[in-house]
Amino acid sequence: MARKIDITEKLDFETSPALIINGKEYPVNADAATVLKLMAIVDSDEGMTNGDLIKNYELLFPENTRKDLDKLSLSFKDLTVLIESAMDLVVGDEESEGEK
Predict the structure, then answer these.
(1) Backbone angles phi, psi at 87, to 5 degrees
(2) How many other β-carbons are positioned within 10 Å of the β-carbon of residue 56?
(3) Which domain holds residue 72?
(4) What is the predicted pLDDT for the residue at 87?
(5) Of 85, 77, 33, whose CA–CA distance to 59 is shortest?
(6) What's the pTM?
(7) How many CB atoms lie within 10 A of CB 2?
(8) Run of H or E including 20
(9) 80 lies in a domain?
(10) Which of 23, 35, 57, 90 would give a disulfide with 30, using CB separation of 3.0 to 4.6 Å?
């Protein structure tokens, strides 16, 4: 018989990361598949392009969250800050500012 190990208690199914903007929470996708795709884009030898920013935005935020974020009419600079902050959140950057 093959060995089996139940790791259910070691996994975190409850945590759903979010960014807070003006007191409102915006959920961020943090599943492993999404994070691996993000890391592949970031680690590209070609560097980050504007197209990569859009890909990251679409990967990081569910469609309904993107609709809410689009209503904020963020400047390009602020959108970049949003994407970078979400990436820091999902890859576990311990030095993220404003963490609650």
Answers:
(1) -65, -45
(2) 21
(3) 18-91
(4) 92
(5) 33
(6) 0.79
(7) 3
(8) strand 18-21
(9) yes
(10) 90
**Measured in Å, how far apart are the chain's first and last C-alpha atoms?**
46
Intervals of the chain under pLDDT 70: 93-100
What does the pLDDT read at residue 98? 56
Question: Does 70 reside within a domain?
Answer: yes
The DSSP letter of residue 11 is S
Tens digit of each residue's pLDDT (9 = 90 or more) over 38-66: 988 888 777 778 888 999 999 999 999 99
Contacts of 65 (CB under 8 A, 6+ apart): 26, 27, 28
Number of folded domains in the chain? 1
Amino acid at position 19, single letter: L
User: Which helix (DSSP H) or strand (DSSP E) does residue 91 occupy?
Assistant: helix 76-91
Q: Judge whether 63 lies within some domain.
A: yes
The helix (H) or strand (E) run that includes residue 21 is: strand 18-21
